[in-house]
Amino acid sequence: MGIVADVLTVTTANVNGIRAAARKGFTEWLTATTADVVCLQEVRATDDEIPTEVRDVDGWHLLLAAAAEKGRAGVAILTRQAPTRRQIGFGSQEFDTSGRYVEVDLPGLTVGSLYLPSGETGTARQDQKERFMKEFAGYLTELKARCDAAGREAVVCGDWNIAHREIDLKNWKTNRKNAGFLPEEREWMGHVFDHIGYVDVVRRLHPEGPGPYSWWSYRGRAFDNDAGWRIDYQVATPGLAHRARTAVVERALSHDLRWSDHAPVTVTFDDAPAVA
């Protein structure tokens, strides 16, 4: 594989505000994790607002793409190995200052952290989401072609804000007209997998469902009842995806131990021959 190490562990986590998450246990999680790469979304902080215990941790290299609109969005990537290339945005005039995408190169591997807009049915926010999806699909096509030509692999981690299939959310029947599970959104995710050629790594390892869910509303007893959505994905090029060995949602043991309404999604890849 030639990617960073013989075994590579990648985590993606929407932190729902890095400053609040740090107070609730994220810092302890970061200290304990064995991940080589951690992709963060909804950081909601500028570089100088990120807690020192996150920004200046020994052994990590941090790249942040903060949103121009203060207190909104924001994505970051933490890597144990210094990146050979850093990129903020994906070449979009509309979205490159909105804290929605950041990317780094490591040996043999490109890693992206994505926070796709959540949208809201019948509003301008949904129109924005659809514009983003259209532009980003074009970028994903370019990224895969670039990696194929260079003999590299890629993984785009993050909060995609779309549940692709019925097994990706608990209450799918009542959400068919809601943003995140609209037919056109689900079709777009299918296009990413079936036409552009990426692989949903977690679904490949857990083909039956339900879930594993990665987000539960803070309202009601969604977490206690496991009434969740699977909207946090690791979307990889086929060569890397077929080297995935484990995929785990690091679900908190109880509601009071959560440091976000999302849970980290962690995948371990190894250098063994691809599994059929």
TrEMBL record:
GO biological processes: DNA repair
Residues of the site described as Important for catalytic activity: D232
Entry keyword set: Hydrolase, Magnesium, Manganese, Metal-binding
Annotated Endonuclease/exonuclease/phosphatase domain residues: 12-262
Hydrolase found in the keyword field: yes
Molecular function terms from GO: double-stranded DNA 3'-5' DNA exonuclease activity; metal ion binding
InterPro entries: AP_endonuc_1 (IPR004808), Endo/exonu/phosph_ase_sf (IPR036691), Endo/exonuclease/phosphatase (IPR005135), ExoIII-like (IPR037493)
Keyword Lipid metabolism part of the UniProt annotation: no
Residue numbers marked as site, Transition state stabilizer: N161
Marked site positions, Interaction with DNA substrate: H262
Active-site residues from the entry: Y115, D159 (proton donor/acceptor), H262 (proton acceptor)
Record-listed Mg(2+) binding positions: N14, E42, D159, N161, D261, H262
Cofactor: Mg(2+); Mn(2+)
PROSITE patterns for the chain: AP_NUCLEASE_F1_4
Comment on bound cofactor: Probably binds two magnesium or manganese ions per subunit.
Homology family: Belongs to the DNA repair enzymes AP/ExoA family.
Protein's UniProt name: Exodeoxyribonuclease-3
Species this chain originates from: Stackebrandtia albiflava
